[in-house]
Known about the structure:
- By secondary structure, the chain is an alpha/beta fold.
- It has helices spanning 3-14, 69-80, 90-102, 116-131, 157-160, 171-174, 185-195, 220-230, 250-254, 256-259, 285-288, 307-319, 322-346, 371-374, 379-391, 412-430, and strands spanning 36-40, 43-46, 51-54, 109-113, 135-139, 177-180, 199-205, 234-239, 265-268, 279-283, 351-355, 358-362, 394-395.
- The protein folds into three domains: 1-37, no CATH class; 69-319, Aspartate Aminotransferase, domain 2 (3-Layer(aba) Sandwich); 321-351 and 362-380 and 388-431, Aspartate Aminotransferase, domain 1 (Alpha-Beta Complex), CATH 3.90.1150.
- Its main location: cytoplasm.
- InterPro entries: 4pyrrol_synth_GluAld_NH2Trfase (IPR004639), Aminotrans_3 (IPR005814), Aminotrans_3_PPA_site (IPR049704), PyrdxlP-dep_Trfase (IPR015424), PyrdxlP-dep_Trfase_major (IPR015421), PyrdxlP-dep_Trfase_small (IPR015422).
Amino acid sequence: xxxxxxxxxxxxxxxxxxxxxxxxxxxxxxxxxxxxxxxxxxxxxxxxxxxxxxxxxxxxxxxxxxxxxxxxxxxxxxxxxxxxxxxxxxxxxxxxxxxxxxxxxxxxxxxxxxxxxxxxxxxxxxxxxxxxxxxxxxxxxxxxxxxxxxxxxxxxxxxxxxxxxxxxxxxxxxxxxxxxxxxxxxxxxxxxxxxxxxxxxxxxxxxxxxxxxxxxxxxxxxxxxxxxxxxxxxxxxxxxxxxxxxxxxxxxxxxxxxxxxxxxxxxxxxxxxxxxxxxxxxxxxxxxxxxxxxxxxxxxxxxxxxxxxxxxxxxxxxxxxxxxxxxxxxxxxxxxxxxxxxxxxxxxxxxxxxxxxxxxxxxxxxxxxxxxxxxxxxxxxxxxxxxxxxxxxxxxxxxxxxxxxxxxxxxxxxxxxxxxxxxxxxxxxxx
Length: 431
Ligand code: PLP
């Protein structure tokens, strides 16, 4: 019995499913989750002292690798002055300025929260408060955190575990969220033609990545923006996962910034907290000033804008200059090409969806464009692929409905391990 097995058996007694977040439990791939004791750079070390090359990056935040000396120093300095003040601090201001500056005029102000869930929940409340309308429009398979309004046809762990919409979400609340198949602008138009005057906001992932990565159809997000505006609704672009990862200005940098449109509200998380609990809502001063205490829409948090979290985020953003993004993109190109080649040579049907440095490997022979097509992947083959990769020292997300995350810490030695591991994984998937 491994130390992970022993700890998991103990954890099951005091934590539902033995975990603090469902997808960590390996339910969709089977087996016992590895307990991690340390991570440094591109490597994770489990409690049995096995080392893995990390392609999950804590589900996105660890873009510059684990325990980067500059992030560690910033956090150490911050916590030496206390872990929380419950009052404004300079580091919080500096992070707000850095986020606003990096978004190049797309936003004027941010409100920090402790999680992406809270950020999207806040953006939705803002949109409803501003428009005085009830409805939210989302897309099937997109994940926007686990608040009541968004546990409707959600992606990520909800998709991996094959859960229907969660018990505990009142039907009155769920009824105010309309979920449409991703990419179907005709259905969005139809909905707005019928109920456009009731819609507060369309909420979408800039690039969907929680049913695996889906490449948005050309012009799709722009059309969402235009349709929302034509009907007095807002567009909320959820960039919790893609923000400051897909480009220095996230998914928006690849789309709206080039096409000349801007979502009304953004949500950010993951990268901007550098691995600490931190996320944000951002938008124009006009919209953001509806938030209390400036405006009437209430939102608050004991630990919001936590100084250690802001220090980690600020240090992480500082590391992500243009050269870092180029390196990240080049690494992701290589890793995705390796996965493609390994699966091809093992004769495993697969599709790789990729947008800049974010990609997913779907074990299916048909194009994956939405949740329905993502669900056609061979999950049994993926389980074999995942476990063989784990044995070979690759830390992959334990679900085929997730993105693969690269970090700037991956080096040529890691890429060799990845290449060898992916070949073993592909052979296992082929059996
Ligand atoms: N929105 C998106 C696009 C996400 O990917 C996630 C988490 O994966 C969330 C919101 C929720 O963020 P958190 O897990 O920090 O609550």
